[in-house]
Amino acid sequence: PLTPPPAPFPTSRQSPGPAGPPGAGVAHARPGPPSFPERPLVSARAQGPPLQRKRLLLGDRGTRLAAGGRSKSPAAMPKKGRKAAALSEEERLLLMQQKMLAEEELSKKKEDMLTQFLKDKLAKEEHNSALNMNKINLQWRTVLREVKARELRKDIEILSQTFERVVDCKDSVIRSLARDLSEAEAQYTHALCGHLHNIDQLLQLQRCRLRYLHEDYSTELEALKKEFETERRMIIELHDKESRYLRDVLLALEQNFSESEYEAKLDFQSTRDDVKNKNLEEKHYLRVQLEGTVEELWKRFQQALKNYTEATEDRKIAFETLKLKDEKSSKEIEMQMKKLQKIQDSIGILKGKIAAHMREAEEQNRHVREEKEVVLKQLQKLKSQMNQARAKARSNLAKLTLESSTALKKLRGVIEKAELTLRLAEMCRKLETEEEKVLPFYASSLSREEQEKVEQVSLEKPGEQLAQLMQDYLGLEHFWQRYNKVKLEQLSLEREKAGLRQENQKLRLLLKQYLDGISVSDEVLGQLNPLLILQHKPRAPGPAAKAHRKRPLHNVVEAAHEVPHIL
């Protein structure tokens, strides 16, 4: 049976409620997220198989035909059966083929009409989506501007309060510094007068000391001069005496040396003459022997040279002739090689051109084939993307709505938390002392070397993940200083309170013992009389002391100073 036609497709221009101003499809609720108009979607039946699309296009007419077909009386069925039985097999096949062709033509027409209808619908939906998106962005910007304006006003108020507080602190510091400066100037004037008086006394003392030293120096200088002159005369006399002695010794040595030198020269001359005569005799003997040998060798050399020249004369002439021929042949070979090289170069160029043309032709053919395949693939891809884009747009719209509502909730939570923090800060500000207002940050207990190490470590690039995260919270160092200071004061007050409570418990116990001692009762008479005890400590500590003993003590260490050492 054919299904009834679907309801008309809703569009973004159709308003579900009463008519309103332009952009009524977009919600104006503040501070909540803007409500988005429901995007019209094509019915799932229109995207189904061809049979369902045929049913959509047939509509009421198909329903009426189906109803009319069902309303026929069963009496007519036997006549139709008898008529079909009268037809032959070939006529029945032709009739079925004609029916199938008619149905195919009808289905093609319906598919074309459906495709055109869907294209028109898609264009309208895209236009409506762009228009609604612009309206949503406009109103969303307005909401964001108002939220940002409120945040900026609150920030300005906080900054103005902070500035006033800082100005008050600075004024107090300036007044204290001016008072310290006046006191320091008075102390400086007093110290300067005392210093100048001490300098005058020291100068007078130094002048007296220099006068005494100068007199001592003059006395010692005269004594040294006299001693120097005496020693100088003694040294000159000794020098003259030793000089005369050395001259006498030198003269005696020169006489002895001249005599020994003359004797040595005579011995050397005689020895040299003997050696010279002996060498001349040996040289003459060797010359006589070698002259005959040299003459014989020279004759042999001349004869061998003559024989070699006669034997190689013909070969030398042939060598010169072949040398000339070789030079001519080498020139011809070089010319032929140049010609062959030119021919080979031209052949290579032509082959390269032919190969380039062939590659270009193949490349063009390949590009044409690839473009054809790409166009076909893109056509199929665009068809699938169009269906996916519809589903994705609907899911993105729902996701955007959820995320915007979540973001607004988180922003409200952050704003409430910030307002609570500011209120607490104002309450704490009222409870601060004058000293804490003037000097909110206590001086560091680290030495200069430790502070330099901390600064060096803070300037280094962190390597671990924890150190990198701590770099983002360096601005909270002053906050943690004040927090740690308050924490330490709280712990000290708790400890003092516990001590006072314990002391109070002891005093209560002593008072009770005293009252028991001055009173008369059976219970008191059964115990020791505290009046007979000179110094009696409570035998059992009170519950407050036990509680104080069980209370764990925590060491509070400033995290800003410990983290660089850990890293």
Structure description:
Residues 214-241, 358-437, 483-513 form a coiled coil. Residues 99-199 form the Dynein regulatory complex protein 1/2 N-terminal domain. This is Dynein regulatory complex subunit 2. One of its GO terms (cellular component) is axonemal dynein complex. It is found in: Cytoplasm, Cytoskeleton, Flagellum axoneme; Cytoplasm, Cytoskeleton, Flagellum basal body. It contains eleven helices and no strands. Residues 1-85, 532-557 and 559-567 have low confidence and may be disordered. It has 567 residues and is mainly alpha-helical. Among the domains are: 184-311, no CATH class; 441-566. It is flat, with a radius of gyration of 64 Å. Helix 8 (477-518) packs antiparallel against helix 10. The chain starts with 49 loop residues before the first helix and ends with a helix.
Features:
single chain, 567 residues, mainly alpha, flat, disordered C terminus
Task: Give the topology, please.
Blueprint: H1 50-71, H2 76-86, H3 89-311, H4 313-430, H5 434-438, H6 448-459, H7 465-471, H8 477-518, H9 522-525, H10 543-550, H11 559-566
Helix content: over 70%
**Secondary-structure content class:** mainly alpha
- Content of β-strand: under 5%
| Low-pLDDT residue intervals, each spanning 5 or more residues | 1-85, 532-557, 559-567
Major pleated sheet: none
Distance N to C terminus: 79 Å
User: Can you write the helix and strand succession as a string?
Assistant: HHHHHHHHHHH
Computed Rg: 64 Å
SS elements, strand count: 0
Return the average pLDDT rounded to an integer: 75
Helix count equals 11
* General shape: flat
